[in-house]
Every structure is written in structure tokens, then in C-alpha cells.
Amino acid sequence: MSDVTARLRALLDRIDTACQDHQRQPGSVTLLAVSKTKPVEAIAAAADAGQKCFGENYVQEAVDKIQQLSDLGLEWHFIGPIQSNKTRLLAEHFDWVQSVDRIKIANRLSEQRPSHITPLNICIQVNISDEPQKAGISLQALPELAKQVSELPNVVLRGVMAIPANVTGFEAQRAQFHRLKLAFEDLKSSYPTIDTLSMGMSGDLEAAVAEGATMVRVGTAIFGARAPRQ
């Protein structure tokens, strides 16, 4: 068994335990393997162990990997900051973009999504901790952006994503996630396509699962320490 396979299995066991501890249905939380800066060999090893969803932060690096691994049938999510001049690559190559935080970007993704492939799945990134250095819109601005995105023709609004402040303690972590959960539930009542609450990483995934996360994003616990970008 490879190191990646062993770590992946341990992480999936951790997610399963969190689901049991918080009365969540088995399999109700999807693992997004954050593979930024990782070589295609490591991604292929995770795919061989059954992992299908991968998250990337750097557009060109990700596109190269998507092309090299195109025969594996993987699902690719973009989770990094979005520059306007990179939206065409996102629209043409990714299955999901989780980091939309302004209508200009959503419009470009919709306009540039090729007509021969399925609509692009979109999550809106929310800055739930109101940290000035982080991307994402405020909770107050979320309803209006959700309305605008939902009206675009070549994208599908699937949910919300957040990277909360790094706080210590299970209850403090839960409190942050709870705010996003409430916003997510409000949106679900208005938009039938919404089903994805993307929150939780290596250090706080138990709290995220407790608060209803449907997707957690984990990299280091699968692939080991982050490699420097070339």
C-alpha cells in the first residue's frame, strides 16, 4: 500500500467517525482532495485508491494536470482566487468552481463555458469570519449574488464555500461553521439546485461535519507536506 493510499484511507475513516458521532448518514460527506502543488503521480495514486474529486488553486498548473490525467475520469474543482484573465481556462476545463465571489466572474464563466459540455457547477465563496485578507463575500451580500448567479445560463448554483479563521477549540470552530450552515439552509429553500456546503479542512473537519458540511477539502493529510511551487 502506498503512503497516499494509507493516508487517504485513514482520512476517510476519520470522516466516517465524525459522521457517526454527529448522526450524519454514512457517505453524506464528500472528500475533496486538495492536490495543488502535488505531482500527477500522487494524484494518480489517490485515484487508484478510489478518490475521484480533486481541488486545485493554480489555474495553469491545474489545467496541465487535468490534461495529463484525462483518462482517469476525475472530477476537478477550482478552489483558489480567480483572476478575470483566467476564467476561460476555468470554464473550459473544470467541473466545479467553488471560489466565485463577484458577479463579473460568474458572468465570464457562464459566457465562456463551451456549449458541448454540461453547465459549470458553482459555489459562492463566503468570508464568514470577515477577514480582510481573505476572498469571499459577506453573508449579507450572499442572497443578492446567489440570485444573480442562479439566473445565468451556463452555470448551476450548487452551494457555498468558506475558509474560516483559524480558531482553537471544537465549539469555536462549530460557531463559525454554524453561520454558514444557516445561510446555506436559507438558500436551499429558494434554489432547488443547491445541495453543497463546502467547509472544513484537516484541522477542523469534525466541527464542519457536525454543522452539516457536505464536502470537506483536505490536502496535507492525504499527500503529505506541501511541496514548493516550481
Automatic annotation (TrEMBL):
Record's keyword annotation contains Kinase: no
Alphabetic keyword roster: Pyridoxal phosphate
Residues bearing PTM N6-(pyridoxal phosphate)lysine: 36
Entries under SUPFAM superfamilies matching the protein: PLP-binding barrel (SSF51419)
Keyword set includes Glycosyltransferase: no
Gene3D superfamilies: Alanine racemase
UniProt xrefs under InterPro entries: Ala_racemase_N, PLP-binding_barrel, PyrdxlP_homeostasis
Source domain of life: Bacteria
Classification via PROSITE patterns: UPF0001
Domain Alanine racemase N-terminal: 25-226
Family stated for the protein in its record: Belongs to the pyridoxal phosphate-binding protein YggS/PROSC family.
Task of the protein: Pyridoxal 5'-phosphate (PLP)-binding protein, which is involved in PLP homeostasis.
Protein name per its UniProtKB record: Pyridoxal phosphate homeostasis protein
